[in-house]
Amino acid sequence: MGTKVAIFLTHQAISLIFAPKKKELTLMSDYEEQILSERTEKETDKKCPNCGATVVFDPASGKMHCDYCGYSCELPKPEAENEICEMDFESALHTESFNWGEQKKEVQCKQCGAVTIYDALETAAVCPFCGSTSVMPAATENTIAPGAVCPFSVTKEQAGESFAKWLKKKWFAPRKAKKNARPEAFQGVYLPYWTYDAQTTSNFTARAGYDKTVKDKDGNSRTETNWMRVMGVYQEFFDDVTVMASKRQENSGVKACEPFDFSKLVPYSPQVVAGFIAERYSIGLKEGWEAAQHTIQSRLQSDISDYVRRHWHADHADSVRFSTLYSNITYKYLLVPAWISSFKFKDKVYQFAVNGQTGKVGGKSPVSAWRVILAILIGAGIIAGLYYLLR
User: Fold this and answer.
1) Are 159 and 339 in contact (CB under 8 A)?
2) Taking every pair of C-alpha atoms in the chain, what is the biggest distance, in angstroms?
3) Can you tell me whether residue 180 is helix, strand or coil?
């Protein structure tokens, strides 16, 4: 037989699959300059000892599981050198960001030899020819490897139930939209996240306000505030400031279904992500740190105001100005679990996500204008009725 060619849609991206007899593959000239080569990792070719099917990670049990005969086994214990640790930010070699869709890669399945063309930032999928869980190398020569994974603990069925309950509570969502939404159409995805730790030292100036009650000449009381200019140095350590490292999922509702429980982290291994799609980061370490600084600055604004009130026993604090020095900056590159899906209503696509650890749902639902108008009329009627009764 000659080369087989198939076209399929995987996670919003169309891939071409070539399954040649030989291990060498000659690609069409249009792709030659933009395709990288990778092979799936040997560790993913785990077959069931009972029936020979591929075993995958099961969120319900936390074990490797065969969907065909029910065989299960524990995940291998991580090696001592694979323990989760913070990495020094200043020593990082690869800090750049990447763009989805600009580059493709060919991935050869170690199980059957089939070659699939993926987006360069996908790191896991399932071989469409043999069903092998095709986990690709965690890092290339210009990227960073993930250090830890938050495994799925919510199953696909539980994610569907959480979504159905969430949508049912959306009173303004049209009834037809609720029927069109298919909670079973979920795809499990491991999403890239950065976490940053940093010690901050901030020089600040502010105003501390003290309230006092005074009476005017008519005996009426009023509150006046006396302001005092203050300055000082404020220090605070920030732990695990999170930044989602995927530009692809910015509108999917993932941020709304945070937080993820980082106390459940396990060292990265191909077995944990087997059977799920995994994304490599598109927001690089340096760009992620810039986003983390915005989060830290916002929190410092509030925390310094609180410090001024406590330290100077003030009633108010305002006009806070500060400059911050960062030190001992470390990071972790993590993969976190989410069930991603979408549905179409009146030619508009609505994306949503379910936290793969907690079942929390995030996303936007369509709004019925008639239901909004009805709610306004009901509210106006209640207010008018109360006004009439209280006259």
Assistant:
1) yes
2) 103
3) helix
